[in-house]
Amino acid sequence: MERDNGETVEQATKKGTEMMDLPEGCIATIISFTSARDACRLSCVNSLFKSVADSNVVWDHFCPDYYKCLISKSYSMKELFVHRPPDLFIERVNSFVISSFVNYYGASGSTWPLFSKQRHLTHNYHYVRIYNIKFFSSNKIKQEVAIDYIPIAISCT
Amino acid sequence: MSTAATADASSSGDTTEGSVRLLTLQSEDGEVFEVKETIATQSVTIKGMVDDDCATSTIPVCNVTGRTLAMVIEWWNKHEIGAVSNEKELKEWESQFDTIDDKSDRDDVYDLLMAANYLNIPTLLDCCTSAVAEAIKGKSTDEMREFFDIKSDFDEKEEDALRKENQWAFEN
């Protein structure tokens, strides 16, 4: 391959691919194969890593599925995961969220998330446990898997 | 197992060997490889070319050196249906790609990532991306920089702010 001058030819043969040459999509896949904490540390490496490691593409892998119902313009998925801004949950937790959950999971047919009646009172928030209930059609056994807690302000309940 | 690639193919364009069509691939540095079409179509990019009838002459593989292309072809050969008798054997063979022990391993994986990305080979891309991910898991930010051989482009103030913002990831 012809190049401008001898120096660049020498440089090009000496140096192979470097991390920074890789397409952003590749870097995003690499980061999404690590963990949420690794992704946070990676975002401090340099500005390219920061832009990729903070992106929704990456955090989509770390966030529970139902966060997709909560995506808003004011918070990125990383902020949802790390800071769990209560105001967002308060704002959306009423009928909207419940119907989104049902729509979201209902579409897949077999799993339905439900709010349990069991509540924990901590500080100013109720923590409501969300269950992912799987119905096994063959033997009608249902398995409850607690997937997360959601904070709800007392005044809202 | 001998590789199906021959480095000194004299003719360009497709040839047939028995009923299997051969494709000619040329690396960035001019090395030429002849590969069975059934094997090369593990690359989504090449499959697209074959489907569109664009694979009739030499296919240039930009950004990929002969050395890397030879490794890619070895990967294809191993992943051809029926080439390896069981899953376990294949996993064992793949393990040479999915661990990064030193800088030369790391550089090979970068080259393979570039090639896998350009040629769109999902299995190889998966293997290499998870290899890099495994290598950086649990490392501190400074260790990550050292591993990637890159320098921070943040000033001290920015870095402090970032560390504060991501503080939970630095706590043990």
TrEMBL record, chain A:
Residues 16-62 form the F-box domain. Pfam families: F-box. PROSITE patterns: FBOX. InterPro entries: F-box-like_dom_sf, F-box_dom. Gene3D superfamilies: 1.20.1280.50. Signal peptide: none annotated. This is F-box domain-containing protein. It comes from Dipteronia sinensis.
Automatic annotation (TrEMBL), chain B:
Pathway: Protein modification; protein ubiquitination. Residues 22-80 form the SKP1 component POZ domain. This is SKP1-like protein. Residues 123-169 form the SKP1 component dimerisation domain. Belongs to the SKP1 family. The keyword Flavoprotein does not apply. It comes from the Eukaryota. The keyword DNA repair does not apply. Part of a SCF (SKP1-cullin-F-box) protein ligase complex. SUPFAM superfamilies: POZ domain (SSF54695), Skp1 dimerisation domain-like (SSF81382). Involved in ubiquitination and subsequent proteasomal degradation of target proteins. Together with CUL1, RBX1 and a F-box protein, it forms a SCF E3 ubiquitin ligase complex. The functional specificity of this complex depends on the type of F-box protein. In the SCF complex, it serves as an adapter that links the F-box protein to CUL1. Pfam families: Skp1, Skp1_POZ. InterPro entries: SKP1 (IPR016897), SKP1-like (IPR001232), SKP1-like_dim_sf (IPR036296), SKP1/BTB/POZ_sf (IPR011333), Skp1_comp_dimer (IPR016072), Skp1_comp_POZ (IPR016073). One of its GO terms (biological process) is ubiquitin-dependent protein catabolic process. Keywords: Ubl conjugation pathway.
